[in-house]
Amino acid sequence: MFGFGKKIEMRVPDGNGGEKTVFVSKRKFNEWMKNGDIAHLQKCKCHVLNFTYQVVEWTIKKDISREQYEQYKDDVGDLYAVIYMEDGENVTTLMEKSMWMYVKKQMGI
């Protein structure tokens, strides 16, 4: 560019369930943040047992509350969950890594 202002790279919804990258001026970005029009979304890894083992990405304040994240995160910021059926519904339970490792071993995964 011509040096008329720093650009900030942002990931925003694309309207089709995905995301796209856009660039906005730092001035506009700061204005939006100050007004509460946008917020930084923190993501984390969640190790999930649900008949199999998988790692998924969760967004804090969307998929999990900040309080739950702070309570259950490990020393690198990862979470551990088990999904099971109860009364025909999927139930997700967060747990500390040591308990999750025990459950994983008991499941033979």
Profile the largest sheet.
4 strands, mixed
Number of domains: 2
Kindly, what is the distance between the CA atoms of the first and last residues, rounded to a whole number of angstroms? Answer: 52 Å
- What is the count of β-strands? 6
**Principal-axes shape call:** elongated
Q: Strand sequence of the main sheet, in spatial order?
A: 4-3-5-6
Radius of gyration: 19 Å
Sheet-strand content, in percent, reads 35-45%
Instruction: Write down the overall mean pLDDT.
Output: 88
Pairing-aware structural class of the strands and helices? alpha+beta
Q: In which range does the helix fraction lie?
A: 25-40%
In terms of per-residue confidence, which ranges show pLDDT below 50 for 5 or more consecutive residues? Answer: none
Order of SSEs, N→C?
EEHEEHEEH
Number of helices: 3
Report on the architecture of this protein.
This protein is an alpha+beta fold. The chain folds into 2 domains: 1-40, no CATH class; 43-107, no CATH class. 26% of the residues lie in helices and 39% in strands. The protein is built from 3 helices and 6 strands. The strands form 2 sheets. The chain has a 4-stranded mixed beta sheet. Strand 1 (7-13) and strand 2 (19-25) form a beta hairpin. The longest helix is centred in the C-terminal third of the chain and has 11 residues, at 97-107. It is elongated. The relative contact order is 0.13.
